[in-house]
Amino acid sequence: MKIPELRQGDVRLCYWGYAEGRDRVPPHAHDFWQAEFTLSGRCLMHTDQGDFTLQDHDLIILAPGVRHSLVYLDPYLCYTCKFHAELPDLPRVVHRPGSPFTRGVIQAAKVILETTFPARFFGVPEGAIILPQDRYQILMEHFLSGVLAAFRQERYGSSPLLERFYQEQEQRGRPFFSVAEAAEACGYSRNHFSLLIRRGTGMCAKDFLNRLRLESARQYLRYSDRSIVSIAALLGFSSQFHFSDFFKRMTGVSPLRYRKGKSGKNG
Fold it and tell me: Given this structure, which CATH class describes domain 12-156?
């Protein structure tokens, strides 16, 4: 399933803060999204979607309208971002316990905040409101878009078969598999593999693999200096002629013309 894309401007930061919680916060709700990146301490968050214990390197995102209250079990420190966005397909509460992924997210947020946000706002207990004329928050908005995209990818997800196939591609360093090779790599018979691919993508296995092969070809033609002969060999074609014939049949233009900036019927 194709995931609706977040575009520039879809996430609009309206508040951020380096917050330290010590007291209880009574039940309330917001008309904006709220993301908390836990730095230290523990906090019990009661929501109308369930209860969550937040601790080191946890991440939680609340949708507008989610009622929640807070009980601080220890002195609790976090980064808080409040923002507007259209995300009807995201769960109303997204909670991720501390992990290498959340640690990386929080470290990246720390770097962005400390290098692009005005120093005068750090340590301000009430946080900072983003004003219409402000521009320092743009990088953070793009970062939040990326984090949200990762969670939305989880929600839509690929099938276990596709995830396994992509892992095999990466581990073997091969941008191309035949149907028989792909089926064997994933531990299925050719017929079963083909059936699962059709269920997962709506395409027959050969068409699915050809699409991946075509996209790989486009990337190499557009962004690398490899010769067309080299790209043909890398993608498993027996000759430049067979590669050119495949590419023109799929796009309507030759690889050389595509490289020079001409678009084909699928480009």
Answer: mainly beta
